[in-house]
Specification:
Blueprint: H1 3-28, H2 32-41, H3 47-64, H4 78-87
Helix pairs in contact: 1-3, 3-4
Length: 88
């Protein structure tokens, strides 16, 4: 995979994750933080958690293709993605 293809996959994964978070924020409103924490703690599937893992994998593939994570515009998700990458 080329670096450009990997970057496109990051863009797609980021868009999917942002869309998922936006849907949950709209659905849960002021309860969003509490609900997402409960989802994180539960063994049930979490669609946004899965989308986040796909985003982290896409960024890792971008780095593997010679790109640098600082070149990506991850917005407010940047720190969380970096933390996940650094944990391995």
């Amino acid at each position: 995979m080329t670096r450009e293809e990997a970057r496109l996959r990051v863009d797609e994964a980021l868009r999917a994750y942002r869309d998922c978070v936006a849907r949950e924020e709209e659905e849960y409103g002021p309860e969003y933080e509490r609900v997402t924490y409960m989802e994180y703690e539960s063994p049930a599937p979490d669609p946004c958690g899965e989308a986040f893992l796909r985003l982290v994998a896409a960024v890792r593939a971008y780095e593997g293709a010679g790109g640098h994570r600082d070149d990506l515009d991850l917005g407010r998700h940047r720190q969380r993605v970096y933390e996940a990458l650094d944990r391995g």
